[in-house]
Design a protein that fits this description.
The chain is an all-alpha fold. 68% of the residues lie in helices and 0% in strands. Keywords: Lyase.
Amino acid sequence: MNDVLERLRAEADDPAAYAELLAAAPDALAASLTSAGLPLWARELAAYRLGMAGDRRAFEPLVLLLNHRDPARCAAAAQALGVLGDPRTARAAAALATNSLRTAYALHPVRLLTALRAPESAPALIKTLSRLLAPHDPYWRVALACVEGLGALADARARDVLVRAQAHPRLALAATEALAGLMAGHPDA
């Protein structure tokens, strides 16, 4: 949490506005999310603080940040969404992870799906990984996160895609480990 707040403090062009948002009550934070003219750092700070407090008014702004091109914003949004506990989170993360037009930004949604362990998690990771197994796919880090996530989830439905992932040099070790864990947890898999 401190890393996120420190990053946002450094981005803030107005130290007094940062301090005000940092001390603001939840209703003031929620109101700031719809205020016109607020810079991105201020919206992120308000959404992050609300999310970390479990206030569901942060859900939509956090999902938008989860889909941001800046990895630090995505990571902060994923952290807050993980704490938020909103039942819509897994569905939103699955939609972002499986969107072929947004694959470059799918790393944090994939990791969030793994952490959530929701019913949507394994199917979304399987679908995303299947698409990323094409030769020379540039998104191998996202594919690796899918493999690691599927290993952590130990869902027997992932067996076939993990076997296919073993053929990829950057994924082979993680896929083999995931399959070993899958077999240990589900001998009939």
